[in-house]
Amino acid sequence: MPAKTPLDAISLPCGADVDLLLEQAAQGRGADWDAHQQACAHCQAALGELTALWEPVAKAAAGPVSAPPGLVTAVMSQVRRLVHDIWYTLESTELGAVRIAARTVAALARDSARMIPGVRVALGRSIHGEVAAAAEKATFGHRHPHAAVGVLGRTAVVDLAVAVGYGDPAHQVAREIQRHVTATLRDQAGLRDVTVNITIDDVIDGDDGR
Ligand SMILES: [Zn+2]
After folding, report:
1. Residue 60 pLDDT > 90, yes or no?
2. What's the average model confidence in pLDDT over 33-44?
3. pLDDT tens digit string along 78-99?
4. Per-residue model confidence (pLDDT) at position 3
5. pLDDT per residue over 135-144, tens digit each?
């Protein structure tokens, strides 16, 4: 693998070392999540974005011609810019940079999920009282742990907890929310890779929904 310059121990909000995540992505193991990564939206978003960023380098390395000299340097400077504001997305356009706060991505995701009839939605992995309140506070305060959204570059991972109506097909409702939220984040936030993790946490009985 080509030599890289270390990122000077930049960490994600969860404390994960970006150098190690880049190493993992560069080795083609961006989808091999350890126990922490399986539960961490920050790491999942970072591994997704870093894998995509590293792809041209990996492709060049696999081909008969060696990677052009400037390629790794260019990718590394892009990675450095992305991790500079760890709680913001970053899209570079010819007109300048567009950054969107993770809390804004979270609000868009939650509000678009609530458009699906008959569901109750909270940020995080539980819609219940204290857990949901902690997730909301952490997410909107840009604090880990319990933050329900991880962003890097144009990649976002969102955790949503959902209560479905009694008798509603939970998995179909979950898919519908995933599709709807993904479309919203792509259209309204310009994100490219969106993952929406759904935890069905409760069933709404009778008329107490919404
Ligand atoms: Zn993490």
Report:
1. no
2. 95
3. 898 898 888 999 998 889 999 9
4. 46
5. 999 999 999 8
Distance 192 CA to ligand 1 centre (A): 20
**Taking a C-beta distance cutoff of 8 angstroms, is the pair 99, 146 a contact?**
no
CA of 83 to the centre of ligand 1 (A): 14
CA of residue 34 to ligand 1 center, whole Å: 10
In terms of C-beta density within 10 A (0-12 exposed, 13-18 middle, 19 or more buried), how is residue 9 classed?
A: exposed
Q: How far is CA 2 from CA 27, 68, 69, 70, 117, in A?
A: 11, 11, 10, 11, 51
Distance 179 CA to ligand 1 centre (A): 25
Strand partners, 160: 123, 198
Neighbours of ion ligand 1 (CB under 5 A): 14, 16, 40, 42-43
Ligand 1 centre to CA of 206 (Å) is 38
**What are the structural domains, with CATH classification, of the chain?**
18-85 (no CATH), 98-204 (3.30.70.1350)
**How many angstroms is it from 23 CA to the middle of ligand 1?**
15
In whole angstroms, what is the distance from residue 161 CA to residue 90 CA?
Answer: 26
- Give the predicted TM-score (pTM) of the model: 0.89
